[in-house]
Each structure stands twice: as C-alpha cells, then as structure tokens.
Amino acid sequence: MAVAFYPGSFDPLHRGHLDVIDQALDLFGSVVVGVLVNFEKPSGLFSPVQRVQLIEASLDGRPGVRVAAYGGLAIEAVREAAADFIVKGLRSGADFDVEQQMAHMNRSVGHVRTVFVPCRPDLGFVSSRFIREIASRGGDITELVTDPVAAALSTTFAPSEQAGTQP
Ligand code: PNS
Questions:
Q1: Rg (CA), the chain
Q2: How far out from the chain centre does Cα 72 lie?
Q3: Which of the chain's ends, N or C, has fewer CB atoms near its CB within 10 Å?
Q4: pLDDT tens per residue across span 28-44
Q5: Cis omega before residue 12 (within 30°)?
Q6: CA 167 to ligand 1 centroid distance, Å
Q7: What is the distance between the alpha carbons of residues 21 and 65, in angstroms, rounded to a whole number?
Q8: Ligand 1: distance of its center to the CA of 155 in Å?
C-alpha cells in the first residue's frame, strides 16, 4: 500500500481539505497530513501545534490518517514521514499553474512525485484565507469548516477580539 503525503498550511483546515484527504484515502489507503510552513506566509492565525490538533479533532474517526507538523521542505517531510508521494487538491486552473511548478521542483530536486486530485466542485471556492477574513469580522463560516475549527475560530474572534470594521 502506498502512503500519500498531503502538505499544506491548513490555517485552518476546511471542508475542501477534508475532501482531498478522503479522496487520497480512497485511492491509496494511507495518508500523512503535513502541516508545513509556507515561506511566503510564515506566520499565521493558529500555531502549527494548534493546526495539527484541529485537524486531528476534525478527522472524525477516519482510519489511515496521521497528522504532523514539519519545519522545512516538503520533500524532506515526505522522507521523514516515509511517504511515497505528495498528493494535492486542485480547485482551479490558477491552482494548477502554481502546483505544477511546485510538483516539478519537488520531483527535480527531491525525486518525489505529486498526484493531483480535483476538488469537489461545490467546495472549489473555499479557502483558508477567506475563512479567516470572514470569521474575523463575525461572519458565519460554520458550513465550510468542521465543528472543532468553527469553535476555535469563534474563541479566537470572540467579540472583544474581533478586528475593527472601521475603514
Ligand atoms: O496551503 P498552502 O499554503 O498552499 O501550502 C503550501 C505549502 C506549505 C505546501 C508549500 O508552501 C510548501 O511545500 N512549503 C514547504 C517549503 C517547500 O518545500 N518549498 C519548496 C516548494 S517547491
């Protein structure tokens, strides 16, 4: 059985991510979800440890999934996790342009291949960035995330913590 490595920022995990995990489980039976640093957006809302905890709490008994945080390159994390290849979800052609380049870099430098799965069309618009933005202004994102993530966002953005709405 092959082991798939699913890397991402997961700040926070949303239902589109869970769909990719489910597709990878269906296809390969074993998935390592790696919380990695995106060096273009190194600091985030939740710490890597919190992100791992939120993913674990959201898995709802799915067998065959491990979750861990890694500090360096994706290709190093793949080796550390003893995984066979990377799996990524594609929401759009724009995703493909970025992901294709990363896949070629990871294959060229680290000899690790990437498998793409198409995201569920009804979740193709979901992004962690907009979930953070909407939740920070008190918007209701509960349909797009799991209960543990919704609870963590609501605690983080309790009324006294909410970002200002003044222009
Ligand atoms: O959820 P994101 O932010 O789109 O995930 C991007 C991520 C974390 C997978 C990517 O930035 C990454 O692989 N970071 C680890 C550093 C790395 O390997 N960089 C070289 C990429 S070719």
A1: 16
A2: 16
A3: C
A4: 999 999 999 999 887 89
A5: yes
A6: 33
A7: 8
A8: 28
The CB of 102 under 6 Å from ligand 1? The reply is yes
Q: Indicate whether residue 16 lines ligand 1 (CB < 6 A).
A: no
- In this model, does residue 164 exceed pLDDT 80? no
pLDDT tens digits, one per residue of 124-151 = 999 999 999 999 999 999 999 999 999 9
pTM summary value: 0.95
Residues 9/36, Cβ–Cβ less than 8 Å: yes
Q: With a 6 A CB cut-off, is 59 part of the ligand 1 pocket?
A: no
Atom of ligand 1 nearest to the CA of 10: 1
Ligand 1, atom 13, lies closest to the CA of: 74
Arithmetic mean of pLDDT, 113-119: 97
- Does residue 106 surpass a pLDDT of 80? yes
CA of 73 to the centre of ligand 1 (A): 7
